[in-house]
Amino acid sequence: MEYTLEYDEWFEARILYDEFLRPNYDLEFVDTLIGEILEFDPELLYIEPGHGKEFFKLAPTGKTEDFLENGGFMDLYVKEEEKWDLFLGQLSTAKIPAVKIKKEFRPNSLKKEKSMLLVLISAITLSFLFTLVSVVNQTFLEPEYVPADEFERKLELLQQQYNQENERLQFKLERAQYILDSLSG
Questions:
Q1: Which domain holds residue 68?
Q2: What pTM does this model have?
Q3: For the segment 5-15, what is each residue's pLDDT rounded down to a tens digit?
Q4: Residue 27 belongs to domain with CATH number
């Protein structure tokens, strides 16, 4: 804005860019800056489009000098900052009722959940091991107990089978003896 007053005639937006903004900004930033000035107050600058650009030439208006004498944008910025400082000062002195904020991320609860998970996994593993030991013990190590009456019944059955087999073998032996005697004699 000050540059437009010093130049006091029409000049290209590119000259403003070359003199003040070139190494750190691009030419589009100048267009954005001019657009923001015109958005604030369209009567602060005369604008002439050309060469395919919306803001090709600039010139000051009568309102430009008055605006800068009253502090310009810097004064507006300072006033806005003072308003925010006052607001934040009032906000910090005002009593705000305590509200419990639910934490989204709680590292202590994560540690607690992790330890609970480890305890659960340990309990499941221990239960599995006890089950496995019990199955192996019942299958291979413990003798199978049979009630006395069933034992006696099985013993009698085995004795009968033994006697029958003994009689059968005795009969075969006698028969073989008979055949041998008839062949030799």
A1: 2-74
A2: 0.36
A3: 666 666 666 67
A4: 1.10.10
